[in-house]
Design goal:
Keywords: Lipoprotein, Signal. InterPro entries: SusD-like, TPR-like_helical_dom_sf. This is SusD/RagB family nutrient-binding outer membrane lipoprotein. Residues 1-23 form the signal peptide. This protein is mainly alpha-helical and 554 residues long. It has a domain at 281-489: Alpha Horseshoe (Serine Threonine Protein Phosphatase 5, Tetratricopeptide repeat), CATH 1.25.40. It is 46% helix and 3% strand. It contains 21 helices and 6 strands. It has helices at 9-13, 50-64, 69-77, 80-84, 105-108, 110-132, 135-156, 161-165, 178-197, 204-217, 225-242, 248-261, 281-287, 296-304, 309-313, 374-388, 395-409, 417-423, 460-474, 479-489, 521-535; strands at residues 87-89, 269-271, 292-294, 321-322, 328-330, 369-372. A two-stranded antiparallel sheet has the order 1-3. A hairpin with a 5-residue loop joins strand 4 (321-322) and strand 5 (328-330). Helix 3 (69-77) packs across helix 6 (110-132) and helix 19 (460-474) packs antiparallel against helix 20. 52% of the residues are buried.
Length: 554
């Protein structure tokens, strides 16, 4: 389908970052300079009415981190939450053992399916935005798409960027290298911000129309165009820091530009699922299905740092824990206890002792589903300042503000003794190790040694470890961001996993990606001919993504 010169090229650029593998620019240039009568616009359905666009906008927000418990489980909890060290699985799921990194195509495809759910809602909005005179909603839809596409790339690596924008999911598909996907995401996010910044200069009638949609359907950005701009810029900052090891000069510039453009200042981006009468899907999975529990690494970290978040987020053991002889070794309600990742799990029945280990607290049921926290923005800015001296605020201030914000999110004020004791902790309590009351073979020494208190005399690597460790804690339960930082920096220190996986990992090695699902011969052929060259390695759990170049010992 041909486009005419009258089409608004800025909005069109949101979905035209690339036209083919042959013409895709490696530096992320948009098509603003080359659009003309002979360019092809993206194919696919587009919304026909404003009401339809508004409804799809709401659905897209619900699918980003899927509020539907079973979908959320496949999107994050069966694998990524375990890889991150936040949570562990309690059972073997009819013989399937994802706790030991074993690969199962139906589990592995969960994040990709959730991405498709989201993209199927936002792409028609982008295509129809000009016709309906709702350009701002088209820009917001592009921000949502960019957020989800970034998560998809950080899980699997390269994907069919252009084909997916056309909602083409069946082979043949063309995979794009991850650096080019990042380039295009930067372009799309900046183009979206350009459109939203023009909003105050539009007519009163137009502003009323857009604000009416936001008032009725915006669940994550406070019904505010300015917050959507900050959200887009915060995604740019997250991307810039992610690529800090592989392209530091470009990363520095992108970070500086994002911060200068304005990142989140006073609003967590999160979906309050209680508005639909639902509870947090993670808590539902834990309390209703008994499928997830506290990870031993996270337990030991929070205990060694004496974090009040352990009691805020988790319950103590909910039943007596017994040894193999049936003797009670931990009385009900006596301690917080996590499960080691990488161990064989039994069936989910009355004999499964792990069901009694610490569950995410029922009080967490009413927390919003987080997409981007203010605390993360502060820690990202702290890392950018530490690495490149980007921004005007000093590292120690940003670091402390990040911790302060994470405590504020949990209702703990900075005047409280809890906060004062935490922020002044010089070093971790090295006397606390992980002890599995059920099986001493799972016992292991704790490995967190750094404290919380900022010390300007620390070397930069120690400072980085402190920033990432506190960011990791504050970001709970966003397992993907935690896993991203683990792969990128090696921090925080988590217990090694003696895993089985797909056979490519050595014992104690961190899983680097989820392999593509290649159950059909045509899909396998595309992966072999285009996916693997774009990835730069085999379709294995051990293959590092483009930005994952540091910490070779993990």
């Amino acid at each position: 389908m041909k486009i005419k010169n009258k089409i608004n090229v800025i909005l069109t650029s949101l979905i035209l970052s690339a036209t083919s593998a042959l013409t895709f620019s490696s530096c992320g240039d948009s098509l603003l300079d080359t659009l003309g009568d002979n360019e092809e616009v993206i194919q696919g359905n587009k919304v026909a009415t404003i009401d339809q666009a508004a409804g799809m906008f709401l659905s897209a927000q619900q699918y980003m981190h899927d509020l539907r418990e079973h979908k959320y489980q496949y999107q994050f909890n069966l694998h990524i939450d375990n890889y991150s060290g936040y949570l562990s699985l309690t059972q073997n799921f009819d013989g399937k053992q994802p706790s030991i990194y074993a690969y199962f195509p139906d589990f592995a495809g969960g994040p990709q399916t959730s991405f498709f759910w989201t993209s199927q809602q936002v792409l028609p909005i982008i295509r129809g935005a000009n016709d309906l005179d709702i350009r701002e909603l088209g820009a917001i839809a592009s921000i949502i798409y960019s957020y989800s596409a970034l998560e998809l790339s950080d899980i699997y690596g390269p994907f069919p960027w252009w084909d997916y924008k056309q909602e083409k999911q069946d082979p043949p598909l063309t995979y794009y290298p991850l650096d080019q996907i990042y380039d295009s995401l930067f372009v799309d996010l900046k183009a979206a911000v350009d459109i939203l910044q023009e909003f105050p200069s539009t007519s009163d009638e137009h502003q009323t129309q857009i604000q009416k949609i936001l008032n009725g359907y915006d669940r994550i950005c406070g019904k505010d165009i300015a917050t959507w701009i900050e959200f887009a810029n915060s995604i740019r900052l997250r991307m810039a820091v992610r690529m800090s090891n592989v392209n530091p000069e470009r990363a520095k510039q992108e970070a500086a530009d994002a911060i200068a453009a304005g990142v989140l200042r006073d609003h967590n981006v999160a979906y309050d699922e209680t508005l639909e009468g639902k509870i947090h899907p993670m808590t539902y999975i834990a309390t209703k299905w008994n499928d997830t529990r506290l990870n031993a690494s996270f337990e030991n970290m929070l205990k060694r740092l004496k974090s009040p978040m352990l009691a805020k987020w988790f319950d103590k053991n909910n039943k007596n824990i017994t040894d193999k002889e049936g003797n009670v070794v931990m009385a009900e309600g006596s301690n917080y206890i996590g499960i080691r990742a990488g161990i064989d799990m039994p069936r989910r029945d009355d004999t499964n002792q792990f069901l009694g280990y610490s569950s995410p607290s029922s009080t967490y049921s009413y927390r919003p589903v987080s997409l981007f926290k203010l605390s993360e923005v502060l820690f990202l800015k702290a890392e950018a300042k530490l690495r490149w001296n980007v921004g005007t605020e000093v590292v120690s201030f940003l670091y402390k503000k990040g911790i302060e914000q994470s405590f504020k999110d949990e209702g703990i004020g900075i005047s409280s003794q809890e906060y004062k004791d935490y922020i002044d902790l010089e070093s971790a309590d090295a006397t606390i190790d992980y002890v599995d009351p059920q099986n001493p073979r799972n016992n292991t020494p704790g490995i967190i040694t750094i404290g919380v208190k900022w010390n300007n005399a620390d070397d930069n690597e120690t400072k980085l470890e402190k920033i990432i460790t506190q960011k990791y804690i504050a970001n709970f339960p966003m397992g993907l961001e935690a896993w991203n930082d683990l792969r990128r920096t090696g921090y925080p220190k988590v217990f090694p996993v003696d895993d089985i996986g797909d056979g490519s990992l050595g014992n104690g090695k961190l899983i680097r990606r989820i392999p593509w699902v290649a159950t059909e011969s045509s899909t396998a052929a595309d992966i072999e001919s285009l996916g693997i060259p774009a990835l730069g390695g085999g379709n294995y759990q051990m293959t590092r993504l483009w930005w994952d170049t540091g910490n070779n010992g993990l």
